[in-house]
Design goal:
seven-stranded mixed beta sheet; binds (4S)-4,5-diaminopentanoic acid; 429 residues; 14% strand; alpha/beta; Aspartate Aminotransferase, domain 1
């Protein structure tokens, strides 16, 4: 790490807990101090010391077009010139709602919020309000933001730092959350036999990205749909990561499942703070002011965020080949990484769906949180440092995803694989 980043981190640690505004990015789990970023363009980041990095974090998913995409920047600039927030309805919100409803198959009505956490938290409240039930089912290693009801056996930073149970979450609330093994339909059936009539919703990341990437086994998501219908519980897809990422209409389009509610974020903001939840009209009409389930926000539907998000979605609508191209790039990257690991005599498991993927240092299949935790975190740590030193910026945790953007070209991917070869080779020494 350069001198300026080091100094900033020192100062930040005195002023901000851990020196960061979101825990994982502190780099604690991989034993590195984080580079402080100055600017970004395309698939590159530059830190305050002038070092350039190939970026596979992509702001944890939103930057599907790459950083500082001209049309996105221009849209943000034009709207900002007209004022930054009105706290009153705008045409941009209507356009955004229309774009989401057109692209995400199950969504008939949508409400904009400011983050993925707000989206899932509100969807859970809506599910409870609509069904009149209190229990929810989630899956170990799935992360749905940091609302109290959802921090049980969570992925992302909770998994990275192995936090067993979060102090501050009332036990009486956590009691209503049942956590089960991902891809384990038998467990879900058993739990629903016992609690089904009290379960408001099953919430799932259809393609988990917060225990590293895990692929849903054939029949798992279909089974969740079938079971929730049987018990009149709602099925909530948390597509904050997978929405507009694994396909234009998200995982629900890719796997052909229609959830009752969908949570969105990341890509729909084009890198600005945004979230959304939507679904069947009948359910969404329970929200105030139509119904009594309350949720609100001063900055919800903020014009700048709407402009950045809409400009991003327009590009996705315009470039009909984007997902095919992302698939090809990601295939090139992850097959190259696998070859490089094998060349160094290392066993790795690579999980990937479209342009999100992860490398686990293990020989066993990774299909849930228990198997993800079997991977060798020490090896990941060394691999991570080797990559960062060579200018490749990865999520500083084995329990997060790599993201490929439209701006990653074959030259950059080739460079990444060469860096990985050296980094893998150093693990043996
Ligand atoms: N929890 C997000 C990753 N899955 C965000 C992490 C961050 O921004 O530090």
């Amino acid at each position: 790490m350069g001198e300026k980043s080091r100094e900033l981190f020192q100062k930040a640690k005195e002023l901000i807990p851990g020196g960061v505004n979101s825990p994982v990015r502190a780099g604690k789990a991989v034993g590195v101090n984080p580079p402080f970023i100055d600017r970004a363009e395309g698939c590159f980041l530059w830190d305050v010391d002038g070092n350039r990095y190939i970026d596979y974090v992509c702001s944890w998913g939103p930057m599907i077009l790459g950083h500082a995409f001209p049309e996105v920047i221009d849209a943000v600039r034009q709207v900002a010139l007209k004022g930054t927030s009105y706290g009153a309805p705008t045409g941009l919100e209507v356009e955004m709602a229309q774009a989401i409803i057109e692209m995400v198959p199950s969504v008939e009505m949508v409400r904009m919020v400011n983050s993925g956490t707000e989206a899932t938290m509100s969807a859970i409240r809506l599910a409870r309000g609509f069904t009149g039930r209190e229990k929810i089912i989630k899956f170990e290693g799935c992360y749905h933001g940091h609302a109290d009801s959802l921090l049980v056996s969570a992925g992302s930073g909770v998994a990275t730092f192995a936090i067993p149970g979060c102090p501050g979450v009332p036990a009486a609330l956590a009691e209503h959350t049942i956590s089960l093994g991902f891809n384990n339909l038998a467990e879900v059936r058993k739990a629903m036999e016992k609690w089904g009539s009290d379960v408001a919703a099953i919430i799932v990341e259809p393609v988990p990205g917060n225990m590293g990437v895990v692929v849903p086994e054939g029949g798992f998501l279909e089974g969740l749909r079938e079971i929730t219908l049987k018990y009149d519980s709602l099925l909530i897809f948390d597509e904050v990561i997978s929405g507009f990422r694994v396909s234009r209409g998200g995982a629900q389009e890719l796997y052909g499942i229609s959830p009752d509610l969908t949570c969105l974020g990341k890509i729909i903001g084009g890198g600005l703070p945004v979230g959304a939840y939507g679904g069947k009209k009948e359910i969404m009409l329970s929200m105030a002011p139509e119904g009594d389930v309350y949720q609100a926000g001063t900055l919800s539907g903020n014009p700048i965020a709407m402009a950045g998000g809409l400009a991003t979605m327009r590009q996705i609508q315009k470039n009909t080949n984007i997902y095919k191209q992302l698939e090809e790039k990601s295939q090139l990257l992850f097959s190259g990484l696998e070859r490089a690991a094998h060349k160094a005599g290392l066993s790795v498991v690579i999980n990937r769906v479209g342009s999100m993927g992860s490398i686990f240092f293990t020989e066993e299949e990774v299909k849930d949180f228990a198997s993800a935790k079997q991977s060798d975190c020490e090896k990941f740590k060394k691999f991570y440092s080797g990559m960062l030193e060579q200018g490749v910026y990865l999520a500083p945790s084995p329990f997060e995803a790599w993201f490929v953007s439209a701006a990653h070209d074959s030259e950059v991917i080739k460079m990444t694989i060469e860096c990985a070869e050296r980094s893998f080779a150093s693990l043996g020494s």
